[in-house]
Model the fold of this input.
Amino acid sequence: MRLLLCARHKRYTARLTNHTSTELVPRPTPLPTGLRGWLETFAFAFLDALPSSADREAVIDEVCRRLEVDMKHDVGEGQEERWTVMYVRLRFKAWKQ
Done:
């Protein structure tokens, strides 16, 4: 994913060279409903294409299991772990000539 973002950043930077300044701004974002809630909200179009609710649950469980190592973090003793996603914002300024 990082490679894809860097490639896009370079492509947009090349298009706007001499007229802009650009930067990638990492934005770690906590998920209050956890990854499961996020997937149910934003991936419903993909999940609804599966034939049964059991299949949807199995896919969500598998995605959560695979991403847990990178996206689930301990926030302190006695507190529940928190899911966090990394959004990256492309920020640029352009000047018309």
